[in-house]
Design a protein that fits this description.
This protein is mainly β. It has one helix and 26 strands.
């Protein structure tokens, strides 16, 4: 576990700026490499999730309830038809999107969204077949329970496990009740399901009475970043803390990650929340005080930016940074903060090895990061 309370390595920004058609390019000098940051698409309303297609296009979600293609030239398609009803309010709306591991054969995608219901709304996940500009065979495979009236803490990241199961991260919906600590609610949990919506056969509570069989781990506040470690295939996540205490965890089965009993965050009006340690509750692998408001995360494994290989990349909403973490096993050994200057919602490694960022704003952008030639 490691705490960082100050900016470690501010990058030298804006060494060069030019506009070529619609492409804006910025150079950023970092500790190990000088980067070129290109704006490759604009006009997205609070983009949230990104997936790469084999034909060079991308799928991108907009929190406002739209799914679009982004073409190779950066142009946006009309919204893709066929999405289910979505409640767009506060932090809720259309969230993440991932391709089925056999997408090349079945054209199936999965997406998370804020699903309306009689008593409010909750995070849900649907599968669908993508054909041209239309979704068909849309099926809700997960719907978090209970639904409540809240505009906060939906989680919503989707990650496929090595065996084909789907991890879904969830938030506590802004509640300080014990929901995240109980096994009869989805609030503050990571769930693991098979692609048809049935619980994973690896889940810890399959035979436990009065427990939801799809729960994998619990005691989370609001997980908005998740990725599989490329070597161990374990699920790593990060979650938002209150005014500090943002955490990175290796999210294992039947582990209690403490919220709201333990946290390194504090009340928004000042003062401690509970305590920082308790027996049988996991300590974070890494945490931030003050909060960076993390969102989006990926392990970098490509050859294009060689000095970053095996590093963990995390976006920061609050400070407009890309945070690079060097790892020694399960320990964060070094942190570099790279100033991007915009709220970062998602971080992805592209098929060619570039790093792609989504910016969280009404006129949101897709940025592509490559080493300077």
């Amino acid at each position: 576990m490691k705490k960082l309370t100050k900016l470690l390595c501010a990058s030298t920004v804006l060494l060069a700026f030019n506009t070529l058609g619609q492409t804006q390019t910025t150079e950023i000098k970092t500790e190990k490499v000088t980067l070129q940051v290109e704006t490759i698409a604009t006009g997205l309303e609070h983009p949230w999730g990104l997936a790469f297609l084999a034909d060079g296009k991308m799928l991108v979600t907009e929190r406002a309830g739209r799914l679009r293609y982004v073409n190779a030239d950066g142009s946006l398609s009309e919204p893709i038809a066929g999405l289910p009803d979505i409640t767009v309010a506060g932090q809720g709306g259309l969230l993440d999107v991932v391709l089925h591991p056999q997408f090349a054969d079945n054209n199936q995608i999965f997406f998370s969204f804020n699903q309306p219901g009689e008593n409010g709304s909750s995070t849900a996940v649907a599968s669908a077949t993508l054909t041209g500009n239309t979704l068909s065979q849309v099926q809700v495979v997960f719907s978090a329970q209970p639904k409540i009236e809240s505009r906060h803490h939906f989680g919503g990241r989707l990650v496929f496990a090595a065996n084909g199961d789907l991890f879904i991260t969830l938030g506590d919906r802004g509640s300080r009740r014990d929901d995240a600590q109980t096994s009869d609610t989805h609030h503050g949990k990571v769930v693991r399901i098979q692609t048809d919506g049935s619980p994973s056969t690896l889940n810890p509570y399959l035979q436990q009475e009065n427990a939801l069989a799809d729960i994998w781990s619990y005691g989370h506040r609001n997980i908005q970043g998740a990725a599989l470690h490329p070597q161990t295939q374990q699920l790593w996540t990060h979650e938002h803390g209150p005014q500090g205490g943002d955490e990175i965890n290796i999210t294992r089965a039947d582990v209690n990650y403490g919220w709201p009993v333990i946290t390194y965050g504090e009340e928004y009006g000042g003062g401690k929340i509970g305590k920082t340690e308790q027996a049988e509750m996991a300590q974070p692998l890494h945490y931030w005080v003050p909060s960076i408001a993390p969102s989006g995360m990926t392990f970098y494994s490509a050859d294009l930016i060689k000095p970053w290989q095996q590093d963990l990349l995390v976006g920061s909403l609050k400070f407009g940074q890309l945070v690079r973490l060097e790892l020694t096993g399960e320990t964060v050994s070094h942190e570099e903060r790279i100033m991007i200057g915009q709220r970062i919602r998602d971080v992805r490694q592209g098929p060619e090895g570039a790093v792609y960022l989504l910016t969280d704003q009404k006129d949101g952008q897709i940025l592509r990061i490559t080493p300077k030639k």
